[in-house]
């Protein structure tokens, strides 16, 4: 059981580093010095002893609370608040869209994976919010050498994570998470209306 507990908390910290570039350096052992901070990590949390981390939770949800307290101690309040949303979602009844889990539930590997997916999604949403605050400045004229784009291509280009400035047919791009969700929701709404609207006919508009 102790190995599973460590692994659960370690996985949370690994997601934190992968998604938000924040490294918890005491993750390998709560009381042993860990490896040096990666050069790709923007925010490093010291590997000094952190009060309360010696007592790991009995399941992943309890370990999320430990990670939440650690993040707050070091001023990463947005990431900690995101874990609050994850815990609320986990506790919600399945009929209300939650997972129906508690801090005393003996989680299966599948349930652990679902919880970790939620953690990753909520932290990735913070990245999306950060990108939304830094949209590129609109251009008054088209840069020399850039092909003209259709309206759809301009929309794709605006939401391109790499911000290359233009897209062309056949390009493979990554777009913001929020844009994907909005796009899927829009299509679902369009399809719903299409089912309810009768197909056009030559006499449809005749009184």
TrEMBL record:
Its domain of life? Eukaryota
Protein name in the entry: Uncharacterized protein
Q: Which organism is it from?
A: Aspergillus oryzae (strain 3.042)
Upper classification of the source organism reads: Eukaryota, Fungi, Dikarya, Ascomycota, Pezizomycotina
């Amino acid at each position: 059981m102790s190995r599973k507990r460590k692994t659960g908390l370690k996985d949370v910290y690994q997601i934190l580093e992968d998604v938000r570039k924040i490294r918890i350096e005491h993750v390998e052992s709560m009381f042993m010095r860990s490896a040096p901070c990666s050069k790709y990590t923007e925010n490093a949390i010291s590997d000094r002893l952190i009060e309360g981390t010696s007592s790991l939770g009995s399941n992943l949800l309890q370990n999320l609370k430990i990670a939440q307290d650690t993040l707050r101690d070091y001023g990463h309040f947005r990431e900690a608040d995101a874990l609050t949303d994850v815990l609320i979602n986990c506790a919600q009844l399945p009929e209300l869209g939650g997972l129906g889990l508690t801090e005393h539930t003996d989680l299966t590997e599948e349930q652990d994976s679902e919880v970790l997916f939620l953690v990753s999604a909520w932290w990735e949403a913070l990245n999306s919010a950060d990108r939304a605050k830094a949209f590129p400045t609109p251009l008054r004229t088209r840069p020399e050498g850039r092909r003209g784009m259709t309206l759809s291509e301009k929309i794709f280009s605006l939401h391109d994570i790499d911000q290359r400035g233009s897209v062309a047919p056949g390009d493979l791009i990554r777009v913001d998470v929020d844009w994907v969700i909005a796009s899927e929701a829009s299509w679902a709404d369009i399809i719903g209306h299409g089912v309810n609207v009768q197909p056009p006919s030559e006499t449809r508009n005749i009184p």
